[in-house]
Amino acid sequence: MKARIFIPAVERLHAETLVYWTLLDARNNILRQDSTTLADIPRAEQVEAILPASRVLFARLKLPRVNAATIRELLPYAVEDRLLGDPAQIHAVAGRRDASGETTVAVVDRDWLANMLETLRRAGLKPVHAFSESALLPEGREWHVVWGPERGLLVDDRGVSVAFDRTAGELPLAIRLAMDEAAARS
């Protein structure tokens, strides 16, 4: 069995924070799901932490072809021009390189991630994987939009996502920018 824990987009995760979770069988069929405190999440052989899209920044970068250890060291500085803070304060993970030579990089605030992992660990939950909620959508050549009453999520055909707030009667700025960027890339 696998427990999939959806981390809320709060500044700090606490043991008493209500967290949505699903319990999955070996074929990823949902056995149970609920929203409870961390202590009430069923225990499973495997735990996955699903990070909120609003906490994960994606960037497309042309990275040098070097070994994995060197890339891990370079990534925070490779995304530095897209950040407002110190690159030493982020955790960056490289994804796939596409046909144009660009690599998708996911960036998360290091302190936020450490707090989340430590809070889960104290509750007896030890994630073996952590990934953005955008990774739950099917891969392919399509774009996906999750349109909630107050917030939304756009995932493009390369798995890059952006979270947005809803505004009445207008196409969200994040969607307009993503469409313009895609058009510029043909």
Count of β-strands: 11
Series of secondary-structure elements, N-terminal to C-terminal: EEEEEHEEHEEEEH
What is the residue-mean pLDDT, rounded to a whole number? Answer: 85
Structural class: alpha+beta
Contiguous low-pLDDT stretches (5 residues minimum) are none
Largest sheet: 5 strands, mixed
The Cα radius of gyration reads 17 Å
Helical proportion?
A: 10-25%
Structure commentary:
The chain is of the alpha+beta class. It has 3 domains: 2-53 and 112-136, no CATH class; 56-109; 144-184, no CATH class. It contains 3 helices and 11 strands. The strands form 3 sheets. Strands 3-2-1-4-8 form a 5-stranded mixed β-sheet, with no helix packed on it. It has a 3-stranded antiparallel β-sheet with strand order 5-7-6. A hairpin with a 4-residue loop joins strand 6 and strand 7. The longest helix is centred in the middle third of the chain and has 13 residues, at 110-122. The chain is globular, with a radius of gyration of 17 Å. The model has no long low-confidence stretch (mean pLDDT 85).
Question: Secondary-structure map with pairings?
Answer:
Elements: E1 2-6, E2 19-24, E3 30-36, E4 46-51, E5 57-62, H1 68-78, E6 90-97, E7 102-109, H2 110-122, E8 129-132, E9 144-147, E10 151-155, E11 161-165, H3 173-184
Parallel strand pairs: 1-4, 4-8
Antiparallel strand pairs: 1-2, 2-3, 5-7, 6-7, 9-10, 10-11
Note the main attributes of this structure.
186 residues, alpha+beta, five-stranded mixed β-sheet, three-stranded antiparallel β-sheet, 11 strands
